[in-house]
Amino acid sequence: MSRESTEPSTQNMETAENYSDSVMFMDISNPDMDQVAVKNNSMGNGESNTSTQSRFILEFDSIMHLGNGGFGSVFKAREKRVDTYYAVKVVQFTGKALREVKALSDLHHRNIVQYFNCWEQDSDYQDDSSVESSTSSESVSHSSPMYLYIKMELCDTRTLESWIMERNVEHQQDSERREESLNIAQQIVSGVKYIHFKKLIHRDLKPSNIMFGQNKKVKIVDFGLVTTEADDNDNLMERTNKTGTISYMAPEQIFMDARRKKFPTQFTSEFFQEDHIIKSMLHEKPGDRPEATDLKTELKNLSRILSAQKATASCPLA
Predict the structure, then answer these.
(1) How many helices (H) and strands (E) would you count in the chain?
(2) Domain range for 285
(3) Nearest to 152 by CA among 93, 203, 90
(4) Residues 137 and 282 placed together within one structural domain of the fold
(5) Active-site residue list
(6) How many CB atoms lie within 10 A of CB 115?
(7) What domain count does the chain have?
């Protein structure tokens, strides 16, 4: 998808109105800690960090490990003071982690995972697999780098990737799956439209980075590769060059069949509307691809067409 227009206009006013229901959350238990990782990177000055070494243990319990990877680890944890569960992401304090926090702190949309606050510690958190997660302990290594603890909205453990795999096992393509897929696609594009409105680019949008909130709504996650939009079109190819996951990179970087818009014949014949939309997104030149706003309109129109077809099919003959 190409970058969004950001000229002051009625479109921007409409966009702002659409997102007026977004809410910014603060850490009311300790407001001075909010944005500490973003605004203060002075922990390497030799001063003791004992005041925050045990914050995760002191303020949270019922800690359960959800997953890990190159990004670090994610835990489900209950904040004692408010009796609410959150996802706490623990990563090494790096430029990538800082970039993610800065992006999330400015993004407030129903289809983007909600960021709450973060803090620094000179200790990683390690759960003990030999005991229950609630009795996990924190390990401190004096040679370890600084760590960033990011408190976020707790999502379902399933990702869009697992949703697709489940549907592939359950049944072949059908009208119900088509409707579900279209609804998910609309929510993703809605989130992407807002990201572009904030002059950011995700750069690693893929099924494993799409989750579902407790309300079953789509949530875009993992902003570690986020970048700002270029001020001009000369650098559109460079800003995504060799960045992201190969299978989901921009069209100018991926497989030859996709670049040639060569799809399976069965897909083209059974889903010709989707075929048209996808091919419009595969133009090699970024400027020729539809903007998120236009794509959202196309998906909405397709949804109306499918709903009308379903209603017609369900009507009894006169």
Answers:
(1) 10, 12
(2) 157-312
(3) 90
(4) no
(5) 204
(6) 23
(7) 2
